[in-house]
Design brief:
Layout lengths: L3 E6 L2 E6 L10 H16 L5 E6 L20 H20 L4 E5 L2 E3 L1 H8 L2 E5 L3 E3 L2 H4 L8 H5 L1 H10 L2 E3 H6 L5 E3 L4 H13 L3 H17 L2 H17 L3 H13 L1 H14 L1
Parallel strand pairs: 2-3, 3-4, 4-6, 5-7, 6-9
Antiparallel strand pairs: 1-2, 7-8
Helix pairs in contact: 1-2, 2-3, 2-10, 11-12
Length: 267
């Protein structure tokens, strides 16, 4: 079974994250297929826009926490893994075709970053957004949120590790539109087809001009610097992070989070 399904219909490519039993948590095989699907869509001259969506109950719960790389203790392997993750997210920013993310259920962690770098994001009313990494002692792979939702909103989301509903996401500019859940597929497709009907060169160069403007302001340099901080987080062990990871490996994530909460209450 394909972890990322690719379907093309009337100039629109539909990329579907297809690991519903894991809430479309993105692991290394899915990353490989996601890149392959993007390559195919970009190289298909008939494709004028791309819709990214998720199968099942959620768009995606983010990158899979079960990667053995982070248990290896190898700083070099961790750097390689995080750089790969970062590059795949930025593929959507650098994509030669305009992208529309259709998100529902959960849009968490790095999947929220992917949806944020897509050109347009349409959310179902039931969607929850969040970046829980700090709760696990992890960092942010692609720190694009300050460029999308501003300083205060990004700090609230990233430092609390909490989540927000679709209405709040709309109010802070994380998404373009919020629609009833049953209308999400049609709403995202309608936007993609509206874009596809326009002059492709004008669309491509206008999109490129917008993105390059932000890069001139320092976006890409800032993201590269932030990635180094994420690598530092993931390769630096503290007494608390070591205890948390030990409990998580032995008893699961919920037990580790409960342990951390109990430690805080003792202070």
């Amino acid at each position: 079974m394909a972890l990322v399904a690719l379907d093309v219909s009337q100039s629109v490519a539909f990329l579907t994250l297809n690991r519903p039993d894991k809430l479309n948590a993105i692991n290394r095989p899915m990353l490989d297929e996601l890149e392959q699907a993007l390559d195919a869509a970009e190289h298909d001259d008939d494709v004028r826009s791309i819709v990214l969506r998720g199968e099942g109950r959620a768009f995606s719960a983010g990158f899979d926490l079960d990667s053995p790389v982070f248990d290896s203790g190898s700083a070099e392997a961790i750097r390689e893994e995080l750089t790969r993750d970062f590059n795949v997210i930025m593929r959507f920013w650098d994509c030669s075709k305009p992208t529309v993310a259709a998100v529902h259920g959960y849009c968490l962690g790095s999947s929220m970053e992917i949806s944020a770098v897509c050109d347009i994001t349409v959310a179902a009313e039931d969607c929850r957004f969040g970046a829980p990494e700090v709760r696990y002692g992890s960092g942010i792979v692609c720190l694009v949120l300050p460029w999308i939702v501003g300083l205060k909103n990004s700090k609230e989301l990233l430092l609390t590790g909490g989540n927000v509903d679709a209405a709040r996401a709309l109010s802070i500019g994380l998404v373009n539109r919020v629609v009833p859940s049953h209308e999400l597929p049609a709403a995202a497709e309608a936007i993609a087809r509206e874009i596809a009907a326009n002059d492709p060169q004008a669309v491509r160069l206008t999109r490129e001009a917008i993105n390059r403007g932000l890069e001139t302001a320092g976006l890409r340099r800032a993201l590269a610097q932030a990635l180094e901080y994420d690598i530092r987080i993931e390769t630096t062990e503290t007494a608390e992070s070591a205890a948390f990871r030990k409990i998580m490996e032995a008893e699961g994530l919920k037990a580790a989070l409960a342990w951390r909460a109990a430690q805080f209450q003792k202070r």
